[in-house]
Each structure stands twice: as structure tokens, then as C-alpha cells.
Input
Amino acid sequence: MAEVLTTKLKSDTTRMFMTDIQNNDFYVFISSVTTDSRKTATNAQYSKNEFLENTVFGKKVLGSDTKFMIKYHPWQKDATYVQYDDRIDLDGEKFYAVVGPNDNDTGDYRVFKCLYNNNGGASSAPPNWNAFTTDQIYRTADKYVWKFMYAIESNEFEAYNAIGYIPLPAEFDVNPDPYANTSAIVYGSELSDIFIQNPVDNNGYPSLDGFLAASPSNSGDMLLRAAGINQIQNFYSGMTIYATNPDGVSYLYQIDTYAYEPDTGLGRVRVVGTPRADGVSNIATFSIIPTVELQGDGSGCIAKSEVVNGQITNIIILDPGSGYTNLTASVKDPEFDFAPEDPNSVDVRVELRPVLSPFGGHGYNFIDELYCSHILLYGYITETDNNQIGSESSYSNIGIVKNPDFVSASANTANTPDVFDNRIKIVTEDIVYAIEGDVVTQLDSSNKITFTGKIHEVDDTANTAYISNYMGPFTNQANNDISFDPTAAIVNSTGQRIIINSPQANNTIESDYIQRSGQVYFMEDFVPLVRTRTSREEYKLVLEF
Output
């Protein structure tokens, strides 16, 4: 039995986590684990406790600095991009390209989805976005077809891109509701493409290119001038005529009747529709091509064929329609000189396979369509933050913690701090005995350890020491907690006493964070980073679901 966990599960899980971030307090915790208990972070409870206990400082993750992320596939000359196909799993494939400022005139980064890749050919020209392109579909000189998805301003791109990933747009519908507008309920898919299954083998299809010899009549007649025009009555009946005005506007009609006029050498067609009222010009060009027939449970899709030397080489989508869950496509057999059933004939019917877009059409649902399964948590430590946390210290661990508790506020309240220093600050005249990196303790009357910690930073000018890594693996007989006593001396590793100055209310500051509180979602170890008073650190954490 085959089992499939779809990308929809990934994308919905990603959505749910983003909602969780918006509705709860998430913090980036900076920790300094220096013991030999582990070399790297693990999922063991001990590892998570150790990370929380050794937290140096933390900063809240702002909702505005969380982004949905997709893989970064920059457009590159001579690269091949995978075209969209509803029968292919595109997860992990390069089926879209990011066109940067060097390759477009806008100065932005623009994401284009590949709808056709010229049968696996290389891309030699990037799509160039134009605000006046109504359908935002671009056909480049290399015969690629691209659908514009969204743009990212350069400053936003530089701020939030991470190695191998870029953000979705700043504003978009995270989970579009097809029933949001009852007057236009989104249902089904659009026609994305029509693949030719036998592009080399099909043969025998007539075509004709020329000019209109006069303006269309009120009856729908058009006079045609073309080299090689066929003289057989109704030879082109049932085919399609595609007329294009000098301004580039085109019109598509099905031919009802055809007659050749020997006196003028012109052909006369009567079409289904009203080309005169539509605005077809007397100097329009035209192509007569085989008719593409489309049948399905939606409406509105229109396509035309392209013929080269009797062979249908391409099907161009003129209108994708909407509301399709099933669709068939075929080319109507010409009424003359087409006999694929004749064993002596070289005529071969073309075989077409329609491709339906994702639900709602390309660009309707960014998260699902672009296989978004990553979230960025972005932030930075500013000069202002340096006034609230250790400005000269080191750390070697970073993590994400949900809903930590604070003495001054419950989790997920407006009063939770944006940034906190988890170290204990003491002022002492015995600062000479406070050595950075040294382990210090407090002892009770029986010389039992009641508190242990590490001197994380020493400010000699202010006679101030900062203690981190407290609580640790030690336990208090009363409550399994290590309790700091501001009235008791701190003893260093060589036995010297470091007496806290009185009054303790002015000379001790304990952390607002309640030790071990919060749910650890992510941890990472790295080579210790040394901070200075002018440090400004930027972090970009990309989580995959």
C-alpha cells in the first residue's frame, strides 16, 4: 500500500505555527552552556533544562519579524526550469525563478512561475514585468511562459532573505477563503496549459496566413487575401480564424462557411460572431488554424493552435477560464484532405493533454502553490538592547522558547518584557575575587551548597559582577531549586568570600525570568560569540515543517 503525506499537510502545519507565533509569546533565548555534559544540543529533557538554566538573555520575537519563506531559485541564464504540470510532484523542483534588480527594470525582486519551458529547453531571457500586462503571463524569446506571482522590494529582500530562502510578500492572503465573496465563489481550477503528447508525429493539418482585404461585413463575412489560398468550397469550414489588428489586439472566431472567389482571387469566410462590431480592422492580419475543442465542468477557457508545415507545434491559452475539476482537449479534424484512418495516409491526429492549475488559479494561494514549509524568525540586538543585557560577554547557544514566565507578568500578556537579562547582578567591594568564568556558590550553616552559578561578566569600574548558569544540576533539599540569598556571601572556587554590599535592594538585581519556564522549540550550538558594548547581532532562524 502506498502512503502519501501531501505538501498540503506541510503548508497547513506551517500556517498553524505562524498563528501560534502571533497568538503567543515567542522568545529567542541566548544561552551559554559550557559544561562537558553535551557537545551538541539534543532533544533530551536534560539538554533542554540545561539550555534554559544557562540562558544569558532573551528577546521577544515580534510578529512583524516572522515571515513565511520559500526556497530561493534565482533566475540564471542557460538554466532549465521545471514547468508546472498537475501530474508532477514539484516539491523540491525549480519551477519558479526570482528575477533580481540586475535582470529587470523595476529595482525589485520578482517571482515568476514557469508554465512552459519549451520542451525542457534552457532559459536565455528573464521575464520583464510590465504593469500593463493584464493576465501577468509573459512569453519570452526563448519560448518560455512565465506567470508573475509577487514582488519583494529590495530593502525587504535584503533584510529578510536567509541563505537559500526568501520571504513571501509582506501582505497576502495566508489562507484564502473560497467562500469569502458569495457573489463570486472560487471553485475548481483554471486551464494552465495543453501539452502535445505527440509533437513530432502529428501531421496533416492545414493552415493559412494573410491579410484582410476589406472591413468585415455586418453579416460576419470577411474577405481574405493570402498566397496559396485553397479554392475548394468550405475547405476551411469548422476551422478557426485568428485576426490581429495593427495595435496587437486579437480576435478569435470559428469559421462557419468558406467560398473562393475566382474573379478576385480572394476567399470569403462567414464566422460565428460579429467581427465588425468587435472592432476587427480592414488591415488586420489573420491566421486560419485547426480548432481546439475544450470540454469540462468549468467555463470560459479558450485556446488556439499553432501549425508549422502541417504539424501542430503548440497550443496557446487565450483565456484560462475557471471552475474546472476535469477537462478534455482535442483538435477538430479538418473536413478536407485529412484521413488518418487511411492506411496509405501520412496524416496523424494530434494528442492533447490539458493541465489544470492549482485550486483557484496560479497566484491564488501562495503558501500551497509554492510549497511553503519554512518560517523565518528574524531579529537583532541593538545598541539600546545593550543597555539592558550583557554588553560584554560571550554565548554559544541560541534557541526559541514559547511562553516563558516572568515574575512581573504571566506569559502571553502585554506586560511580558521585550528583552530581559537573565543574570544576577551583584555589587561588592570584593570584586577582585570575582573572576570571569569562575564557579561560585553559597553555603548554609552546614556547608551544604544552596546556590551555584558562574561569573559571566565583571565590571571592575562599577564593582559589579554578573552571575549566569545558575540552578544547574544541583538540587536544594527543600524544593529542588537553587535559591539565591542576597544577604549571604558568594564563595569563589578558591574559597574567597565575595560579600554583597548593603542594602541588598540596591546592590542585587535578580532576573525577572522564572527559571526553566517555557517550552523549548529549537536549539542550536555554535562556536562561542564574544560580545562588546558596540555589538549589533542579527539572527535569522529558519524553521522547516
